[in-house]
Design goal:
The protein is mostly beta strands. The protein folds into nine domains: 77 residues, Immunoglobulin-like (Sandwich); 363 residues, 7 Propeller (Methylamine Dehydrogenase, Chain H), CATH 2.130.10; 78 residues, Immunoglobulins (Immunoglobulin-like, Sandwich), CATH 2.60.40.10; 74 residues, Immunoglobulins (Immunoglobulin-like); 79 residues, Immunoglobulins (Immunoglobulin-like), CATH 2.60.40; 79 residues, Immunoglobulins (Immunoglobulin-like, Sandwich), CATH 2.60.40; 66 residues, Immunoglobulin-like (Sandwich); 72 residues, Immunoglobulin-like (Sandwich), CATH 2.60.40; and more. Helices cover 0% and strands 49% of the residues. The protein is built from no helices and 97 strands. Strands 3-5-8-7-6-9-10-4 form an eight-stranded mixed beta sheet, with no helix packed on it. A hairpin with a 4-residue loop joins β21 and β22. It starts with a strand and ends with a strand. This is Gliding motility-associated C-terminal domain-containing protein.
Amino acid sequence: MKLLLKYLFLFYLIVAANQALAQDVVIESVTPKEGYSGQIVDIKGVGLTGADQVFFGSVEGEIINVSDQLIEATVPNGATYDNITILNSTTGLIYSSEHFMLSYGGEQGVEASNFSPQIDFSAESGLYDVSVSDLDGDGKNDIIGANSNSNSATILRNISTPNNLSFVETPLNLGTPSLNSTTGDLNGDGKPEVVFSEGDDGNRLIILVNFSTEGNLSFTRQFIPINSSSTKRVVIKDMDLDGKPDLVVSDQKSNRIYIVKNTSAAGTLSFSGDIIELIVENAQRTAGLDVEDLNGDGKPDIITNQFLTDGGGFFIASNQSSPGNFSFSSFNEFSTGGTLVNLKVGDLNQDNRPDIVATLFLSSSVAVFVNETTGTGEVPQFSSAQNLATDLRPWGLDFGDIDGDGNVDIIVANTGPDKTVNVLNNDGSGGLPFSKVSLPVEFINRNIKVADLDGDSKPDIVFSSVDDESNNIPASKISILRNKRCIVPVITPESPINACIGNPVRLEAQDLDGVTFEWKQDGTTVKSGADNFLELNDAAESGSYTVSLFSEEGNCIETSEAVEVSITSAAALPSADITSNAPVCTGGTLTLTSTDVGATTYEWRGPEDFSATGISIDVENFNSNTAGRFYLDVYSGSCVIETKSITVDVISSPNFSIDQAGEGTYCVGETASLTVTPADSDYTFQWFRGSEVISGATSQTFNPTDPGNYFVEITDQVNTFCPKIYSDTLAVAFLEEPQVDFTLPSTACISTPVAFANESVIADEATAQFSWDFGDGGTSSDQDPTHVYNTAGTYDVVLEISYDGFSSCASQSTKQIVVNGGLSVEITASAPSICEGDNVVLSVDGTFESYRWDTGETSPTITVDQGGTYSVTVADANGCEGITEISVQEFPLPDVTLTASSMAITQGDTVTISASGLSDFQWTADSTQLSFTEGEIEIALSATTTIRVEGQDENGCFGSAEIVIQVNEEGNIGDRLTPMRFFSPNNDAIAQFWEIDNIENFSQCGVEIYDQQGNKIYEAKPYNNDWEGTANGSPIPDGVYYYVIKCEGTGIAKSGSITLLR
């Protein structure tokens, strides 16, 4: 069964700034947010007493101290960039909203030489994804590989030591191929389960339930089908904050996100069969997925993107759930360019607001979307994309501090042919100061993780080296780049230290394995070995102390900053005791008092950089941020003779809020319901409307009947000295039903847009939703729609108006419209076609009220002189229209040509003349009609004559042509030709060409030119009077040349000499 959560108004709206999580245990802050192995981290919250284990990612840290509101724990060397998790065997698993990151005190900057050569471990066929987790509880990150072409997964059990990577490979039969993997403790036993999405477009999740012990891996298999899906990414997160992490799944086949509800109990893993389905509007499918609190309300929100969709953008659904009740806003779309593949959430610019980073497959970059959400619980807002360059085809990504400088770096896997992994190194200078570093690797790679794998407290890089199917290069290897950067040691406590003899000083550096510490006093070595601490308690041990760290098999030697230590003798004092006025209410004043032991000075230190001096001091406006461990330095003279501490909790009250059924606005007559959450019998409630007490309204739920601003005064019945608590104010409004009215024409015509005008009266506070039914099956949600009817008839038009989110607040109105049929119209043409230059008359049959031709004319008859399609729209007295068109074909005039057997004949000879381009022929000779009607004639001429032919072609179009036949009445052609005696081709436009008068009438004659040696230098037939005194394209010298004119049938007609003068 799937529960479809699509619209926000279906669920309760949480209106308080800080939501009531209804959990006994809440993590509120983590300080610091990055740290080195062995560093103590303060985890603040509520209800922390009883915490059994603390995990930094999947690796357990050591708990030093636990109180109701503070856990002090040390950072393990296997910590990954992840939420901190607290396991309480009673209340379950609790996640921090903030990420913690392993750092190690390195110097800023990354180079390819900072890594050892790539080490590969074979996986099964089709390796796709990798994840890391401490599966057997030995404090070392094991590696899990998902294989898309094998029914087995790959697990590498970590047996590494510092500087030496070593794994035991364990293939595990899943019974099906796998695609992506993730890990997390699902049943609250402190052991992370492994969850795979099914490969081959499968619809199942495969869970390896963890029963491992240190050094021994042991799992059982469990399958969860998600019908009609193709599972992709899986994220483990407690969505309803009931202490049981749920499964959030993307679907690479549809626009769905699925939530599998965790129902485990007493360490037995189980899930609800009612799989929650969220629709991602405007998406085709989902792929990239992360689940993190984006707006600081303590509830993890869902972030997803479309898979390999250009311009697909990403989507966010805000979490509004409470224990046992899953509630989400509809997905808010964030449009952006590029083809997104995967995304991850993390605080890159250290402003305590998590940002989003996505790989852009085709753009060779990652896009960073900076979190711009303004307030707790507000709708998440993000900047436009800021792209950071990568190598070709980036795919997977992860975060970590590669160089140990305390800044979040982005690590990217690339599937492009460059065969690289990218580190986008963050120099921490503000904004997004990342620089790309390319690490050459052996294969193309797809997914990537950052974690310390060899126990040296520095994050390494593990990635899936995948098969290159395009180039037929197999890989399927889990590959590791070991981080061999140097660690700069840091000494705590900070300088200066003034201690009295008898108050031992303990200097500590990072807690590291496989390294050597060399402690020096004033430059002289006083201790060397594996100990990361140095204890001092004698005046002779005063001085300047440094520690040098020897690592990476002696290749790294780094020295700390000096710490100044002064140990002096002082008068002995009794041990001081600290008392407080606890319990202290939120907003009250904490008073800390030391017994008077005769000390010179009493100096206090505490959370939020608190400091004060005196036997008794006050901490005003005491709250969860200022609660925690306070230290007292007791001075005897100028040195500290004793340091005492006390942990003080604030009296915590639930984060009360008002839930309401609906959106805060109701229809008149509808029941409004306001409820204070959480329900706590230790508190009483008094409801207010404005500033007035509502008599008798003292229960958890109140049903207002009047509009106004409502809030609750809350009184602590146990800690009666605590001030009253006031909820946020909630506005309630009641809306009048819509008064629906609209106008429409009484009659209309088919195929003609009809306008409907809304004239309804609606409440100003409401957003109206319009639902039109035009009676013919057509509908609209526009306020003032238009509609086209295609069939004549009488129709009932219905307008229903409701208010957005209030289905009960609706009313409607019905009116009729008569739709007339369309007009029948025809066009008659005076001729079916025209010849070029002719015209035709087009006439509309029948009589109408108006005419509108596409030529712009408005008469019933038009005359056109060009072929084409002509249309006319007519209208009758009712405004109904009809339209028709007619095509007029236009034929070109015929291309008539005449050819003669000879253009010049001798008097009395015959000539044959042929005509083409006509279907009938009429011949004339010098305007005298001839009796010929064929296309070819033979005629004898006694004088030069103009022969003309005219007629029609096959289309009936008229054409004509004429030709002049030269008749030589004297019988010698040469006598009729007069060549120039000289010419001057010097481009002055005078005698440029050698010309022969009358040669144009004798196309049967040609010209040859010879030089004085008898060489032919030019010839042309016919001659067009265009010789410029050239031979082969080059000018010839001035001089005398000879011409010969030869005509067909007569031989040489004329010859002579030419003088060329330039």
